[in-house]
């Protein structure tokens, strides 16, 4: 009986740990802010942003939205421009992913 209770405690601890890990701040999950070689232009009123990869190498970036869902990660080639739009929340930052 004692082994069964110990296993229940271990399982409960693992579940709590897993839930805490998945509930991490989305901004942290996105990674650090993209370097300055990823140019940004943002029109907050229109909820639109453009990024241009001026880094000279492929970059993996995503749009982080404050109080809204982040956009998926995209791989951009040197010189490539992406247009990002959103409906809920406000512009947070461009992050590496």
From TrEMBL:
Entry keyword set: Signal
A GO MF label: alpha-amylase inhibitor activity
Record-linked SUPFAM superfamilies: alpha-Amylase inhibitor tendamistat
Superkingdom of origin: Bacteria
Bilayer-crossing regions: none
Residues making up the signal peptide according to the UniProt record: 1-29
Name of the protein: Alpha amylase inhibitor
Organism: Streptomyces brevispora
